[in-house]
Amino acid sequence: MPLPVFSSSKIGTTVETKYMPLAEEAPLMEGSDTDLPLANKKKSSLAAKLRAQAPWIVSGILFILLIASLTFRRNDYYVHSTSTSSPSFETGFDLELIPAKAHIRMHNVKYRGTPQFGADGEEYVDYLPGEVRYVGPPSDEIDEAWNQLTTRRFFLLSAEEAEAQWGAAYKKYWNANWGGYVASLDLFHSLHCLDHIRKSLYPDHYHQGKLHGDIHNGHCIDHIRQQIMCQADLTPLPSQRFENVNKNYLDSDRTHTCRDFSQIRQFVHMRYNQSLTGNEVPTGHYAPGHEGTSSWGPV
């Protein structure tokens, strides 16, 4: 049976279809794949299949590249996002007390206390109404302000906490009288030292014993020196000219980025109170054969 070959001619809008024997009316075009050797036919067939599948192949390659790109970006984001939890001023450093790090909060604080000079050249500090004072001639108000900073600064560490902070040498810090490993954060020791130096300026008012003489004063000065150098605050201070005294002085009333002291103080008070009462003390052993804090007596 002859195969139909469609030929059409337009008569107006009518399409005429004629059926003809394939051999007579539809000779093969030169170069048609039916007159090629078998090997060439297979190659031509493969090429045709590749051409037909090319859009799918390209789409597949693009999809793989897209997934790879998204994976790379995700990994890159993960690296950068997790790097924010690496040791820093905002998150805490490796040598700092581990449970205290969760209480670090950041905020900006404008320092106060830069001396001013009157028309006669007299030096003064312009305090705000109700501002807490930490310096000046001895007074109950100033003493109480310092007490608020420095009292209740000691607390107990468990043996696990002590070992994590001080390594194998932690056992030598066991305090049998106080029933645990007694610690204080460095910043509170520095505040204590600064208060001690303040009191040493008024020896007639503050009578300090032999253990708090020149050697202790020197220790406190040197400890504060080391802490200042360690912190290395890079906030720039401008120099201001005071013509009435013919001198330049730094304006130290600048805004600084600080850890929120109140948050850290709250953490220390919490640990102090737990140590004092023996309730809700951090889990762990305080010494072989010693549990609780019955003999706790911090100052």
TrEMBL record:
Pfam families, per the entry: UstYa (PF11807)
Protein name: DUF3328 domain containing protein
InterPro entries in the record: UstYa-like
Keywords from the UniProt entry: Membrane, Transmembrane, Transmembrane helix
Organism of provenance: Favolaschia claudopus
Family under the similarity heading: Belongs to the ustYa family.
Keyword set includes RNA-binding: no
Pathway named in the protein's UniProt entry: Mycotoxin biosynthesis
Sequence segments annotated as region (Disordered): 279-299
Sequence intervals crossing the membrane: 54-72
Highest taxon, organism lineage: Eukaryota
GO BP: mycotoxin biosynthetic process
